[in-house]
């Protein structure tokens, strides 16, 4: 018997199809490198926007999920409450991981916490979902974003989902944009500095015809 899925109706967001090698936004901005403590104010108590994108992935409860940066403990809490059983959180900041551990309390035993640099991550399994609300948007150089995309590609299953927050997304042609929406928790007065929540799908490798 197939496990129950946790899919939810998709939001009424304009779906923009595009090649992943092109930035979602052509705006000229200089993102800041933000430590998890610096962005803790952006993490909502009710992570509705991240959850909406995750629901659209239509995951099974046993599908492996990776949260990068540990910047949104309420999101991890919400995923556990929804029945997801294979959650990993990775961050280079021990303080950020301690915040997740303190938030979850006894439930922390149900989440794998990894103290490591996500840009040099070598996972032992492939994930169905890679979620990152903080690290990617702080990468200043195209080379860093390219390295990030390569690591995410290796860590994700074929047709796995990548959810990011940022302003421009040079991810290469291995990822296709499925959903995008403004990030209201960090929206500035100037549209040129508006953050976006985006959901991408990793393309499966093409099979050579016989």
Backbone shape = globular
Number of strands: 7
Element string (H = helix, E = strand): HEHEHEEHEEE
Helix content: 10-25%
CATH topology of the domain at 59-202: Rossmann fold
What Rg, in angstroms, do the CA atoms define? 16 Å
**Which structural class is indicated by helix and strand composition?**
alpha/beta
Question: What does the main sheet amount to?
Answer: 7 strands, mixed
Q: How would you name the CATH homologous superfamily of the domain at 59-202?
A: Vaccinia Virus protein VP39
Which parts are unreliable, with pLDDT below 50 for 5 consecutive residues or more? 1-44
Beta-sheet strand percentage? 15-25%
List its salient traits:
single chain, 210 residues, alpha/beta, seven-stranded mixed sheet
What is the secondary structure topology, with strand pairs?
Elements: H1 48-56, E1 65-68, H2 73-81, E2 87-91, H3 94-104, E3 111-115, E4 127-132, H4 142-155, E5 156-166, E6 175-182, E7 196-202
Parallel strand pairs: 1-2, 1-4, 2-3, 4-5
Antiparallel strand pairs: 5-7, 6-7
Helix pairs in contact: 2-3
């Amino acid at each position: 018997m197939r496990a129950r899925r946790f899919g939810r109706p998709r939001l009424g967001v304009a779906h923009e199809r595009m090649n992943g090698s092109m930035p979602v936004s052509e705006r000229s901005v200089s993102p800041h490198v933000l430590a998890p403590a610096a962005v803790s104010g952006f993490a909502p108590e009710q992570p509705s926007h991240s959850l909406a994108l995750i629901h659209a992935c239509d995951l099974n409860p046993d599908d492996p999920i990776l949260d990068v940066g540990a910047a949104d403990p309420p999101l991890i809490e919400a995923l556990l409450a929804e029945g997801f059983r294979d959650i990993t959180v990775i961050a280079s900041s021990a303080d950020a991981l301690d915040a997740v551990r303190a938030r979850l309390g006894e439930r922390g035993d149900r989440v794998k916490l990894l103290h490591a640099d996500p840009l040099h991550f070598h996972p032992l399994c492939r994930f169905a979902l890679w979620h990152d609300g903080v690290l990617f948007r702080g990468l200043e150089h195209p080379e860093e974003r390219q390295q990030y995309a390569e690591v995410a590609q290796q860590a994700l299953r074929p047709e796995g989902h990548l959810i990011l927050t940022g302003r421009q997304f040079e991810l290469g042609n291995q990822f296709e944009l499925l959903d995008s929406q403004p990030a209201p928790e960090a929206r500035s007065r100037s549209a040129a500095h508006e953050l976006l929540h985006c959901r991408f799908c990793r393309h499966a490798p093409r099979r050579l015809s016989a």
